[in-house]
Amino acid sequence: MTNLATQANRSKRGWATTMHVLLALIFAVAGIAELLGIEALVATFDTLGFGQWLRWVTAVLEILDAGLILLPGSVLLAALLMIGISVGVTISQLHFIGNSPVPPLVLMILSCTAAWLSRLSDEPRS
Q: Transmembrane region positions (predicted)?
């Protein structure tokens, strides 16, 4: 029976690692695009009315977050930061920009799942 439990834990860890890499790629690409000043993103942050400093801060947080989620000891912190960023983007989409909130909500669900799966790192490895 322990062999099945070990196999299940390895499978969960594999899915968690895949999710971490996917989230890291998404947040890194988004942060780099914001740092590069892609016109659509600059216009989006102009629409928010806070100035471009928010674009720079968001970009740095997203890139930092992309690195943090790949470090085993900081997965929970990274996932919580990703959830916070996703909440902010969802609110912005709904109240200021008028775009669909589905993409940030999907990222929020993935980030919540990553936070939940981060508990696997606390379990002893077999």
A: 21-41, 76-96, 102-120
What is the per-residue pLDDT across 35-69, written as a single tens digit (0 to 9) for each? 999 999 999 999 888 889 999 999 999 999 999 99
Domain ranges of the chain: 2-122
d(CA 86, CA 123): 28
Start-to-end C-alpha separation, the chain: 13
pTM of the entire predicted model: 0.82
Do 118 and 24 form a contact (C-beta atoms < 8 A)? no
Alpha-carbon span 81 to 68, nearest angstrom:
10
Q: Which two tokens stand for residue 81?
A: 């930061």
